[in-house]
Model the fold of this input.
Amino acid sequence: MFTDLILFRYGGAFQPRCTSLQEYIASEWRENGQHDGLDAVIMAIANGSRRVQQHVQQAALGDAYGSTGQTNFQGEIVQHLDKVTSDIFVEVLRQSGHVAAIGCEEIERPVIVEGDVADGYIVMMDPLDGSSNIDVGVSIGSIFGIWQKKPGETVNDDSLLRPGNQQVAAAYVVYGSSTVLVLATRNNVYGFTLDSASGSFVLTHPNIKIPENCPYYSTNEGNYKVLDRPTQEAITLLRNKYSQRYVGSLVADFHRNLLKGGIFAYPADQTRKDGRLRLMYEANPLGFVAEQAGGAASTGHERIMDIVPQQLHQRTPLILGNKDVVEATVSVIKGG
Ligand code: P6P
Done:
């Protein structure tokens, strides 16, 4: 395995050796006895996101902006890059040899990988979240929740309907001023930044914890008028206490709040009784990352990761971020 020992020269002084994603997995995970095969799944995600990043950066030049003119089974307009990124991640996850099934926002039915798949990981993904922002150069992202099939289980569609509290790992990639892959396991949360010169993801954010200080709240204030009264009160309390930061890309908003402190709220409203965001490949993975970083994720009435899913693409309200602020917000929404 090519070991990326990257020595950065900056102003003549050598920076300390940076650890690549491959090196982190080889050292940290093997020592801690992480799930066999999970490393192959994570490296597949990293390899896929490296390719996606190139497409995102080149979209305008390659006439890959904009929509395909088609709508998907969810009634959403399909952007050119939605299809490209979905195909890339399905390909690399299949090739990993350790993924038994894939659930994807862009694909109506689960992709069941035929044949004998070692370990049998189940990956739920939003391959390109916020894709409507591509054309205006706003950060977008990819989100992954990872479960493992039960011993001896023959994987079928129902195998994917697992609560978030059974995830073994989660990851997201934010394609912004830099491309950062954040990886959460049951022990910790680490961030790796893509070094475009070498093509390696380099450890830049070891042991991420959501700061106790909460400077920001992220919500679409345009929805205030359709919120129920207790939720309006909760949003008003956030507005009076914190600065608003709302990109309109879930991964970008969450990543900023994860690193600097903050709360993201897309609650249920009169037009969206079940919320807007997706449980299996948005709320569950980011809820897993948030909790491993000391934060919380709620629907406004219950812990996101305790929801027993009824169908692959179900939606959920989402209150996500700094634990104390999430709990205080939920208390008001509940009418406490
Ligand atoms: P609204 C992007 O389309 C997305 O799915 C999330 O990334 C984002 O948080 C949300 O929708 C934004 O929704 O209604 O504020 O435009």
In short: Confidence is low (pLDDT under 50) at residues 1-14. The pocket of 6-O-phosphono-alpha-D-fructofuranose is lined by residues 129-130, 132, 220, 248-250, 276 (CB under 6 Å). The first strand starts at residue 9 and ends at 10.
